[in-house]
Amino acid sequence: MTELNAIELNNLTKNFGDFKAVDDLSLTVKKNEIFGFLGPNGAGKSTTIRMLCTLSQPTSGSAKVAGYDLVKDSAKVRENIGLVAEKMIMYDRLTAAENLRFFGKLYALPKPKLEERIDELLELVNMQEWKHTQISKFSTGMKQRINVIRALLPEPKIVFMDEPTLGLDPQTTFSIRDIIRDINRSGVTVILTTHAMTEAEALSDRVAIIDHGRIAALDTPQNLKNMISGGDTTVFSVKIMNLKSKLVEKIDSLDIVTAVAQQDAHDLKISAKGNEALNQIIDTIRREGGNINSITNTNEFTLEDVFLTVTGKEMRDHANEKLAPISQRHGQTPKARVR
Amino acid sequence: MDLMKILKDSYHVMAKDMIEFRRNRMSLAALFIMPLIFLIMFGFIFPSGNTQQHMPVGLVNLDQGQGSAEFIAQLETINKNTNYMQFTNFSSVDEATAKIKEGKLYGTFIIPPGFSYNLTQGKSASFMVYIDNSNPQSSMQIQQVLSSTVSGLNDIKAEANVLELSNGTNQPVNPQAMILPYVPNIKTTIPGQTNYFNFLAPGLMIMIVMMTVMTGIPEAISKEKEMGTFDGMLSAPISQVSVILGKTTALCARGFAQCIMILVLAMILFGVTFQGSILLAFFLLILGIFSFIGIGIMAISMSGDQASSTMIVNLLMFPMMFLGGIFYPIQQMPWFMQDISKIIPLTYAADAMRKIMLLNAGIGDIMFQIVVLVAFGVVTMAIAVPLFRKSMTR
Fold first, then answer.
1. Which of A255, A315, B264, B362 is least crowded, fewest Cβ atoms below 10 Å from its Cβ?
2. How far A214 CA lies from chain B's nearest CA (Å)?
């Protein structure tokens, strides 16, 4: 173990019965890095985080967190990590200070130091005046701010954040992103899971795109984007007024097309290869009687486009629900199936 | 992880649980209402052990002589003190038996013709008592009341006869000593009158603690699991033992509060007396909790969610409640039920508690029960704790 690595995963695997939630995952997270796990629901992000926080036993493989073995030295691992889980770790009937104090005591922080830390962190999130108010009276945003500083209380070397901005208003989202950048600047390694592309892009030094418990791609956001823009891949946004699922299937069956994702009733995102891609796609749509309203090819790639290209799946939050009616009627093409 | 840290963390978990509990008005109310309901419910639905009063009994006097009139007068005088029976006069046997068949009478005295004549002739005067034994409970009671009343009547008559005889022979005698040469002096283990509550209260205290702990542990843990707060505790550098210990201690405090309530209520409402050492009683409560807690932890470890763990706990708790000798003495059960009772820890805990509270038993007197409870606790915990650890990192 080199001093530079905060986390090392070696063939980490987690099975739930026959289902492989995390499949032979190997990677390293460098010290003082913001590392993003990006993937759709059920990709294995949360399971990986749970294993790394010693909350779940790996089926096989091993991992080192902060230099300690996950299984053999789990107590040492726990001393060095902070966790912001998907569900908020807080007691509704306790006040903000009582919650922070309770968790602080579990880390054996001396009392004066703990009180100092609580005030310092409450100030950081601008919640000093709510110190003695019960959590149950807080809004979701306020709760999450307390939840985040709770994880930071024992000054952990590594902080795991599982969807830290999920369901929050933009203002709180930005303030939490600021905190993440702040603590990272002060030397903390942050492991972030998200299915929001913009978040991974805005915060992460490196991003691992995971799908079906495996790494589909791992690099800096910029390199990932270069990976597709440097090649001959193009991502098209097409608006078709009379979009039918049969047409989606036809487009998907084209050799040049690597992935198709339907975004709403009229909009498709198609990632395709080669110079002939645009013509072939237009021909196919016309042949099937599709009425093209607009078509654009994106030059400025986002991580979303990377994700689409490497996994063949749409990444946006609302993709699942918008796709549902059509997929229920006709089923999906194998490539574009969303779990 | 050293012991001090484990204990300290347990304390933090306990303190946190107590604050949460204190701020939950509903559960706070339930804490006090449950023992009250239990005590009142069990106190009144089970036969109290006292004889029923005002049992309807018929009187058919076919004799019309002086002897029978005297007999009835004495019968009514004796009954006036106890009020066990409520007499109604009937002119014929048929009339009285018809009432018995209707269920309006428990039984009837039938004084045959010639009753007074036999008395004056120095013969035994026999009469008939007709009892409805279709209801065994009340038939037994009325038989007891009748036989004690009749023996009282016999004593009065015998006393008068002996006095008369001694006057005739000019030999001064003590008629009491003549007719009752043997006088038992009954002394009971518990001074004063006892009732069913003396039997019930100690067992009920143990049972309430058992219920609080056995249902409380799976509930407390699965609630935190579902809320997600459990992850917060388990990702902190604390032992899982601390979590169990802290939660148990918080539950124990609640169990103790309920025990004290039961004891006070039983004393005020039902005249239960506490003979033994309170310290020993509390020691036994803690021991009882220790012996039950393993089962609660096993239930949550095996099931994972609250609904199924509650089901497992109920499945175990109900036989324990009724076979543990809380409501009925085990000795009155058929042998195979007694055998089942012997493998239930509640039996031993309730038995020992009863001995402490009623008989002022010392620690030596309940050593056997203590050993059984410790053994049961050690065995279940030895299974439960590894199971729990495993289930936590599933």
1. A255
2. 21
Give chain A's mean pLDDT. 83
Q: B235–A53: do the CB atoms touch at under 8 Å?
A: yes
A-chain CB neighbours of B229 within 8 Å are 89-91
Phi-psi region of B386 (alpha: psi -120 to 50; beta: other; left: phi over 0): alpha
Which tokens hold the place of B66?
């002086």
CA angle A162, A163, A166 (to 5 degrees): 150
| Order of strands, sheet of A158-162, starting from the edge strand that comes earlier in the sequence | A81-84, A158-162, A189-194, A34-38, A206-211, A214-219
Question: Is the pLDDT reported for residue A284 higher than 80?
Answer: yes
Report B:233-252 residues touching A (Cβ under 8 A). Answer: 233-238
Enter the pTM of the model: 0.73
Say how far residue A227 (Cα) sits from the centre of its chain.
Answer: 20
The residue among A106, A109, A134, A166 with the most chain B CBs within 10 A of its CB, best to mutate, is A106
Tell me, what's the pLDDT at A321?
Answer: 37
Per-residue HEC secondary structure of B68-109 comes to HHHHHHHHHHHHHHHCCEEEEEECCHHHHHHHHHHCCCCEEE
Report the 3 state secondary structure along B174-223: CHHHHHCCCCCCCCCCCCCCCCHHHHHHHHHHHHHHHHHHHHHHHHHHHH
Asked if the Cβ–Cβ distance from A90 to B229 is below 8 Å, we say: yes
Strand partners, A22: A14
Does the interface predicted TM-score (ipTM) exceed 0.95?
no
Domains, chain A, ranges and CATH? 5-220 (3.40.50.300), 225-330 (3.30.70.100)
Of the candidates A54, A81, A108, which has its C-beta nearest B5's C-beta? Answer: A108
- Residue B385: per-residue pLDDT: 86
Q: Which residues of B are less than 8 Å from A156 in CB distance? A: none
Name residue A123's beta-bridge partners: none
The series of mean pLDDT values per 10 residues for chain B, 394 residues long, is 86 93 88 82 64 82 86 85 85 88 87 87 85 81 82 84 82 78 79 72 84 84 88 90 89 85 81 81 87 85 81 85 82 85 88 87 88 92 87 75
How far apart are alpha carbons B314 and B306 in whole angstroms? 12
Q: How confident is the model at residue A144 (pLDDT cuts 50, 70, 90)?
A: very high
What residues of chain B lie within 8 A of the CB of A91, using their CB? 16, 20, 229
Alpha-carbon distance values, B73 to A78, A299, B118 (Å): 89, 118, 18
DSSP-derived secondary structure for A14-56: EEETTEEEEEEEEEEEETT-EEEEE--TTSSHHHHHHHHTTSS
Domains and CATH numbers, chain B: 3-48+195-392 (no CATH), 55-179 (3.40.1710.10)
A313 phi, psi to nearest 5 deg: -130, 150
Q: Are B4 and A79 in contact (CB under 8 A)?
A: no
Give the model's confidence band at A324: pLDDT under 50 very low, under 70 low, under 90 confident, else very high.
very low
Closest CA to B160 of B81, B70, B80, B82: B70
Instruction: Indicate if the pLDDT at residue A331 is higher than 50.
Output: no
The pLDDT tens digits of the residues spanning A247-275 come to 888 888 888 887 787 877 888 888 887 77
Cβ–Cβ below 8 Å for B23 and A93: yes
Give the tokens for residue A216. Answer: 């589909």
